[in-house]
Design brief:
About 30% of the residues lie in helices and about 25% in strands. With about 475 residues, it is of the alpha+beta class. Strands 3-2-4-1-10-9-11 form a seven-stranded antiparallel beta sheet. The chain has a six-stranded antiparallel beta sheet with strand order 5-6-7-8-12-13, covered by helices on one side. Strands 17-20-21-22 form a four-stranded parallel beta sheet. The two termini are about 15 Å apart.
């Protein structure tokens, strides 16, 4: 076991990259709503590969199908045909709150006093534990460990109000990050928290119906026209032939998750009013402006850092090459390698081009370093292939602080940059040198200002403070 300050191991379970959060897609007023939701989720598969689900309604019956696995594994032509209706909401999940099992798959659905309500959520509610305890004391019985279930119980307790009043009253009680879809048998609602942590956009379908999705890449796949982003603090209600918005929160400054632009979102998406591909490329350009080395070529580890590497190469004039080749046909395997086949999971995906690397001075462009263990193996693979120097440039600052808003590093204990200097990290990874993009440079590459973003994972400036119980629970889970 190798450690830095006693914290890090070479366990194959640990990953270089943060795990994705979740993705949502809703279709309103289309006869093939479940199929369009399926394609939307297919486009959003990068946001969660653990489970997938769709709820649909034909105005009389609300039907649901969900399971563990990828979108293509969970749904078939037959299951989608059975999910008939003109309203659908769908979800792909990687768990950041709640255990990884089928009971926690989304959308979540309940029936209370004859009203069926379903919800699909991307984000984390930072006061969910306190709310859950209060609701349980008042008799609520929870079926899952998902923070999203709190919303359903709050709505169920407000059935004496109008639907709009129940929405406003329920959502004003929750804090944190939520880009959420909610559905009854005749209504679809899109909700985005007042800070706007996670992206959510509205598009118009060819038949006049609507789509709401986490990213614009889902709109592109179903040939929908982008209309606008769902605004931070907006509850967008689709019912009958009308779309109506209410704003239950006082306006506050935005806290867009900058990690969406660095890593999470698909490069062909537009989020927060900016294009992801162009932003990542500019991050590479700014990185080259801040630090350029003498090297034979620049390379990414596909597909990590690809676009920042293009920008770095163009700005620095150092050639861009692919020193490792990715196997795109890996899929899932249930056959485990033997103990002697060290780093199998790394080698099965990426293989160095030995004849090209031998004797070369290499600059690796990475989009981020989180835990660092996979990066150590990747650097060693370049050394083994004969690279004479291996340097790394990272297109974001050191990630030193936990995220409470939907990314799976809830504890600083998991972060290689926490409590370690850059030269210590470089030594651990086996690098000749390591350089991180400055916070100012990263923000400048977006064309926006630091006040537009949540950058708490870099500087611990949390725009929404988590409840103490949530904070302790996050640390307990990861420790």
């Amino acid at each position: 076991m190798t450690t830095i300050n006693g914290k890090f191991s070479d366990s194959p379970a640990a990953s270089l990259k943060p795990r994705h959060e979740c993705g949502v897609c809703g279709i309103y007023n289309h006869t093939d709503s479940s199929k369009l939701a399926y394609f939307g989720l297919y486009a959003l598969q990068h946001r969660g590969q653990e489970s997938a689900g769709i709820v649909t309604s034909n105005g009389e019956r609300v039907l649901i199908h969900k399971n563990m696995g990828l979108v293509s594994e969970v749904f078939s032509e037959e299951t989608l045909t059975l999910l008939e209706g003109n309203i659908s909401i769908g979800h792909v999940r990687y768990s950041t709150t709640g255990a990884s099992n089928i009971i926690n798959t989304q959308p979540l659905m309940i029936t209370h006093k004859g009203i069926t309500l379903a919800v699909a959520h991307n984000g984390n509610l930072v006061n969910s534990i306190a709310l859950r305890n209060r609701l349980e004391e008042r008799g609520s019985i929870f079926q899952t460990t998902m923070d999203s279930e709190v919303v359903l119980h709050l709505m169920a307790r407000a059935t004496d109000r109008s639907f709009e009043e129940a929405l406003a009253m329920s959502f004003k009680e929750i804090k944190g990050a939520f880009s959420m879809l909610m559905m009854t048998k005749d209504t679809m609602v899109a909700i985005r928290d007042p800070n706007g942590f996670r992206p959510l956009c509205l598009g118009k379908l060819n038949n006049g119906g609507y789509i709401v999705a986490s990213e614009t890449c889902a709109l592109d796949l179903v040939e929908a026209q982008y209309v606008r982003d769902v605004e931070p603090g907006e509850l967008l209600i689709c019912k009958g032939d009308q779309i109506k918005s209410i704003y239950p929160w006082a306006k506050r400054r935005t806290s867009f998750c900058i990690f969406e632009t660095v890593y999470f979102a698909r490069p062909d998406s537009d989020i927060f009013g900016i294009n992801v591909y162009e932003t990542r490329k500019r991050m590479g350009q700014v990185l080259a402006q801040e630090r350029t080395l003498d090297a034979d070529f620049v390379m990414p580890f596909p597909d990590s850092g690809n676009y920042a590497a293009i920008g770095y190469s163009q700005e620095s004039g150092i050639p861009l090459e692919f020193g490792v080749i990715r196997n795109h046909y890996v899929g899932r395997t249930f056959i485990q390698p033997t103990q002697s086949m060290r780093d199998f999971n790394v080698r099965v995906k990426l293989n160095p081009v030995r004849s090209f690397l031998e004797g070369k001075r290499v600059i690796i462009i990475e989009d981020s370093i989180i835990r660092g263990t996979t990066g150590k193996s990747r650097v060693q693979s370049l050394r083994n292939a004969g690279a004479s120097e291996v340097h790394m440039m990272v297109s974001c600052p050191p990630t030193r602080h936990p995220c409470y808003y939907g990314i799976d590093f809830p504890s600083s204990k998991e972060l290689i940059a926490y409590g370690n200097e850059v030269d210590q990290i470089a030594e651990y990874l086996g690098l000749d040198s390591l350089y991180y993009l400055s916070l100012e440079g990263m923000v400048r590459a977006t064309g926006m200002t630091v006040d537009d973003f949540c950058v708490a994972c870099f500087n611990a400036d949390y725009p929404v403070k988590p409840d103490l119980n949530f904070h302790k629970n996050a640390l307990d889970k990861s420790g």
